[in-house]
Design a protein that fits this description.
Shape: elongated
Order of helices and strands: HHHHHHHHHHHHHHHHHHHHH
Radius of gyration: 33 Å
Mean pLDDT: 82
Length: about 400
Amino acid sequence: MRWRVPRPRFRTATLMVLVGAIALGLVAWRFYYSPRWVWRRAVHGKDSAASGAAWQQLSKGQIAGMTREETEAMLAEALADSHFPVRFGAVAAIRFSGRDLALAITHLTGRLEDEDFRVRRAVVSAIGEKVKVGVDRELAEPPLRSALDDREAEVRRQAVDSLGTVAGKLRRPDDPLIPLIASKLEDPDENVRVQAGFELARLGGGDEALPMLKAFADEHLGKSEDAETGASVERALFAIGKIAERSDDALDFLIGDIYRKGEPLENAAFAALQLTALTDPKGRDRAIGRLREALKGDDFNRRVGAALVLESLGRGAEAVPTWIEALRSPDDRDLRFHAIIALRNLRPVDPRAIPALREAAKDPDLEIQQRAAEGVAVLEKAASRPAPTP
């Protein structure tokens, strides 16, 4: 008996379906691995290395396998993506790219109405960084002016920051941006007001902002608050330091009131940093004069504040009487500890320091006793060495 082996029969329709399926699979495979979709998957995926490489390509202006025109189209698509990280990444790519300002503004301006304030803030920051001297600022000013009225305070603060960057390129006292920045001294948000004062001080003004800056620093200095407020405190102190070049009121705040808030040693060191940065020699000399006057005053806190700042400025020898007095401060252990260090580090050795430290070695605090005794030994050894030959 023979078995019949059936032979397959392919109808034309079946064959066409099979060929079509194969063709569709090839198209899908090619589509899936096209440069466009490889890049899209990278920026949407969780692989940080692949994502970083993809954004770097975009920042350089050409995605692998694509023309520059196609790359710009992908950038526009990424700016309109529904996912916040992709839109944010696209803005960052523009900020760090070599695109000229006109092209950057074209891409960025549309995102000033983004639903996420972080994107809007990044846009404003990118525009400020892209500004160059001359005609380019004419392109940047309109979107930055618009951002000053953003509904989110952090975007308004960044707009003030960027406008300060723009004005700082030319540093003209008659720059029309200065009144615009000054208008934000009346902003309902305190961090925006401080940023405005900070920018005005950086540009050589800001005297009208001093009362607000002092009040803000006085309220928040030394408190454990959120990072944004902490950054604003630093900006306020910097601005006060710049204004102190010409204002006794600002200088008095730095060397006196600052001691009464929070961590006096840290705050005074920060104040000294501002005074060190004084660009006007006359302002610096006047500041040193005011510190010397404060050392002679009746207010102990102000004397200590002045001593701390002078020490940070390398003029600690002028504050020896104040440090000796601070060794006897019963309610401030940190201050007594710092006074020991200040006296121990003086060179040449001040003859008043050794007996004062010997007395401090009788302090009821054991650690203070130990540090004072060590200070005596250090100073006696230093005093016994012959003076260096000139």
